[in-house]
Amino acid sequence: MNPIEEKIWNYIDGTCTPAEQEAIALLIEQDEVYRTKYQEFLQLNQEIAGMELDEPPMGFTYKVMETIRTENARQPLKAAINPRVIWGVSVFFAITIVTLLVFTIANIHIGLSAVDVKINMPAGFKLPKMSNIFSSQVFKWFLVFDVILALFLADSYLRRKKTAKQL
Amino acid sequence: MQSKLSDIELIEQTLAGNQSAYADLVKRHQRFVFTLAMRFSKSREDAEEIAQDCFIKAYRSLASYNAQAKFSTWLYTIVYNTAMTFLRKKRIATDSIDEEGTFIQIENRESAYDADNVENKSRSFYLNQAIEQLLPDDATIITLFYKGEQSLEEIAQTLGMETNTVKVKLFRARQRLKDKLERNLKHEVKELI
């Protein structure tokens, strides 16, 4: 690269230090070679800066947005749902099933022929009957309410997290 | 009418589900993206395809956009990568076409311009013609620097190069542009005589 040309382009682009800028300005003023090159480059610089951008065809934005809309519509429901929501629901059900299983196992009375296990319960204490609990209408509604509440809370939590991430 | 909201605000609205905000972003950047695509493809049809592809890719990965960098810098990186991939694919597809074929294509394009803009043959016409004759990398650097309001550092980020390399490439690209412009103008003067 020609050092004179490099200096002049740096001067035009404003990429040199103030001291260099001053020195080049002085050279342009005093040296004929520098002055001619400077005028030449300045003209080219102005012409490039003034060039027009190409215009895309009519309806370009519409085409882009239509493609995006079509792609979104084609997306299967499985892909449209946030996978974290699916995971949240799965974990909730897994925990519920495990809890019920533990509770049921804990309440099973195993009778052994060799060893007779007897647990002394406090007077007046009665264990609830499992069959009554599971068949009761109140329990069913309680479960439905729990599921809806859990889904609602999981959804609002994920939404808040997503908004915070975007900001 | 274009939106007065900033790029970041439009992105936030798009991510919140407002698609018209993205349409505003497209309107704002489409001319520059299309021009950059033209620098690579040298054909309006291909440039339209590249530019569309870029905006769709940008929409898909908008959530991963890091607001610390300028949106335009991020978008131009997508344009550069998409255009490079397009050129690579095209080179494979047209591997049998020799230099002469390409030359004929450029010549035809110029004559099409001639027919349309006979009365507008100004210096800016020759400038555009000279830019079209440059290598895609040279034309892209010049366009990014002058029309994309990009600093040398931002161009380096877009093209995945060192800032100093971009600086040297810009000097050389301007020199080549100047040579081509002078050659085209001389040729035109000879034809008139």
Question: Would you kindly provide a brief summary of this structure?
Answer:
Chain A has 167 residues and is mostly helical. Chain A has helices at residues 3-13, 18-30, 32-49, 60-74, 77-80, 83-106, 130-135, 137-166. Chain A is built from eight helices and no strands.
Quickly list its features:
heterodimer, A: 167 residues, mainly alpha, 72% helix, elongated, B: 193 residues, Rna Polymerase Sigma Factor, Chain: A, Arc Repressor Mutant, subunit A, 2 domains, 0% strand, globular, transcription (chain B)
Oligomer: heterodimer
The count of DSSP E runs of length 2 or more, i.e. the number of strands of chain B, is: 0
Large-scale geometry of chain B: globular
The CATH superfamily of the largest domain in chain B bears the name Winged helix-like DNA-binding domain superfamily/Winged helix DNA-binding domain
- The outline of chain A comes out as elongated
Helix-strand string of chain A: HHHHHHHH
Mean pLDDT score of chain A: 82
State the low-pLDDT regions of chain B, or none.
96-120
Structurally, the number of domains of chain A stands at 2
What is the correct CATH architecture of the largest domain in chain B? Orthogonal Bundle
The average pLDDT score of chain B comes to 81
Proportion of beta-strand residues of chain B: under 5%
Order of helices and strands of chain B: HHHHHHHHH
Biggest interface and which pair forms it?
Answer: A-B, 30 and 41 residues
Approximate strand percentage of chain A: under 5%
Q: Would you count the extended β strands of chain A for me?
A: 0
Total number of distinct structural domains of chain B: 2
Keywords (chain A): Membrane, Transmembrane, Transmembrane helix
Protein name (chain A): Transmembrane anti-sigma factor
Organism (chain A): Mucilaginibacter dorajii
InterPro entries (chain B): RNA_pol_sigma-70-like (IPR039425), RNA_pol_sigma-70_dom (IPR014284), RNA_pol_sigma70_r2 (IPR007627), RNA_pol_sigma70_r4_t2 (IPR013249), RNA_pol_sigma_r2 (IPR013325), RNA_pol_sigma_r3/r4-like (IPR013324), WH-like_DNA-bd_sf (IPR036388)
